[in-house]
Write a structure and sequence with these properties.
Chain lengths: 178, 294
């Protein structure tokens, strides 16, 4: 068997050590983290437990609710359906990476806060990041486009009305600030 | 507290196809290939699936591509569904594929989910198996023993079952070009947007110069993607029309063997299939006529 890769863990294949912890380095919110994880550990659990970033929430744990949404290379994904080992070398953004500073909120966060786009807040990190990508790709979405885009995120409190309103408000503000 | 949802497995992340095939050959039936993970990982989290070894295909760059060769669309198995959705070439030349892909789960799922993963998983209500069936796609399978090319009817065996051998990978899907004067349509019913389809129907109609139907393809989500060949034959040599479509949709729905579950009864699914087939045929005919006039 030919091995052209220089990645050090490759050597372990022949020694039968695929279960033990592996070193993973990933860039989260612009900062590089180096951690040791078991292959079966989910990215969301690793982000919360190994990185200490508890803004990303674990809801259904099987890809239905969207609470664990993070941005992987800028695109929204469910971090409960990815293993942390797969994130080796990946660039990830979590809700902690949204606000420009300790004292300011991102315009989308600001809008959710102002028009009650959340009640209990459990689903909110997933909605914020999902909305972030929508407004990047489509700065002036229609209500239908917003509803379709956020269909992968469940909220059991708001009935979505104020989430849609918040995204519309954020879109107007972000367009005005440009 | 530390959380570990899936059971323990050995993890391999080859970077080339030959490495992956070698691992599959060595590990045999206990290893599962991991594509986008949007079906396998939920099953592992719930411990409904407990593979002893996972062969992660996500680092194999050579399996991720979308290109046109000899008029055919060639899709690498690890191409993300979102790439299909974003491709201008697919939108222009294989609009049926573009349309159906938009119905797969939600954007978070399509960003990760792959074309090959969905096809190899062969979930009965999945969109890609149905449209690939309607499009007459060819499935390219490879193992260390060699390569074989199969059509949808040969590839899909039953619910979540394909002819893939334990040491074999689906590496590419080839979609033939649509003939001129071809119209297409895709219709799906689910309880909420992005949910699993209760029924989905894809179709293609090709007209000759005089407006008579020359080629017809319909495919339904059934226990495995189903093409109602006797219904398709009734369309050939006839002019598009609502009476014809009503009759053919009825014949097609009778040939189905839909599942009954908590979401819908078999009777309901069959009735939805009939209505959707009629709409698909009407819309495909309209588009075929429009492209004939263009």
């Amino acid at each position: 068997m030919k091995h052209e890769s220089s990645r050090p863990e490759k050597a372990r294949w022949r020694e039968g050590k695929q279960v033990g912890k592996r070193e993973v380095s990933m860039t989260v919110n612009g900062r590089e983290y180096r951690i040791q994880v078991e292959p079966r550990k989910l990215l969301v659990d690793s982000i919360r437990e190994d990185l200490g970033l508890t803004g990303t929430h674990v809801g259904c744990e099987h890809g239905v609710c969207g609470a664990c949404t993070v941005l992987w290379e800028g695109e929204p994904v469910r971090s409960c359906l990815i293993f942390a080992v797969q994130a080796d070398g990946a660039r990830i953004k979590t809700v902690e990476g949204m606000a420009p500073s300790e004292t300011e909120l991102h315009p989308i966060q600001e809008a959710f806060w102002e028009v009650h786009g959340l009640q209990c807040g459990f689903c909110t990190p997933g909605f914020l990041l999902t909305a972030d990508v929508l407004l990047r790709e489509n700065p002036d979405p229609s209500e239908d486009q917003i509803r379709q885009w956020i269909s992968g995120n469940l909220c059991r409190c708001t009935g979505y009305q104020n989430i849609v309103t918040a995204i519309q408000l954020a879109a107007r503000r972000m367009a005005a600030r440009k | 507290m530390l959380h570990m949802k899936p059971a323990v497995f050995e993890y391999y992340d080859p970077t080339t196809l030959s490495e992956a095939l070698n691992l599959l050959a060595q590990l045999g039936g206990t290893a599962r290939p991991l594509a986008g993970g949007q079906s396998l990982v939920p099953m592992m989290n719930l411990r409904l699936a407990r593979p002893s070894q996972l062969i992660d295909l996500n680092r194999i760059a050579e399996l991720s591509y979308l290109r046109v060769e000899n008029g055919e669309l060639r899709v690498g198995a690890m191409t993300r569904q979102r790439e299909i959705e974003r491709s201008a070439t697919v939108a222009e030349r294989w609009p049926l594929l573009r349309e159906a892909t938009g119905y797969i789960g939600h954007v978070q799922i399509r960003n990760r989910g792959t074309v090959g993963g969905s096809l190899a998983h062969a979930y009965p209500s999945a969109e890609l198996p149905v449209v690939m069936c309607a499009l007459g796609a060819v499935f390219v399978l490879r193992s260390q023993r060699g390569e074989r090319s199969l059509n949808a009817k040969e590839f899909f065996v039953g619910p979540m079952t394909t002819v893939l051998e334990p040491d074999e990978l689906l590496i590419e899907v080839r979609v033939p070009p649509l003939p001129p004067r071809t119209g297409w349509a895709f219709q799906e019913i689910s309880r909420r947007f992005g949910d699993f389809a209760l029924m989905a129907v894809g179709g293609l109609l090709t007209l000759d110069e005089t407006g008579v139907i020359q080629q017809a393809r319909l495919a339904f989500t059934d226990s495995t993607p189903m093409r109602p060949e006797s219904a398709e034959k009734r369309l050939l040599g006839r002019r598009p029309g609502s009476d014809l479509f009503y009759e053919v949709a009825g014949v097609a729905a009778r040939d189905l063997n839909p599942d009954a579950d908590i979401h819908a009864s078999a009777e309901y699914r069959r009735e939805v299939a009939r209505v959707l087939a009629r709409r698909v045929l009407a819309q495909a005919a309209e588009r075929a006529q429009a492209s004939s006039e263009a």
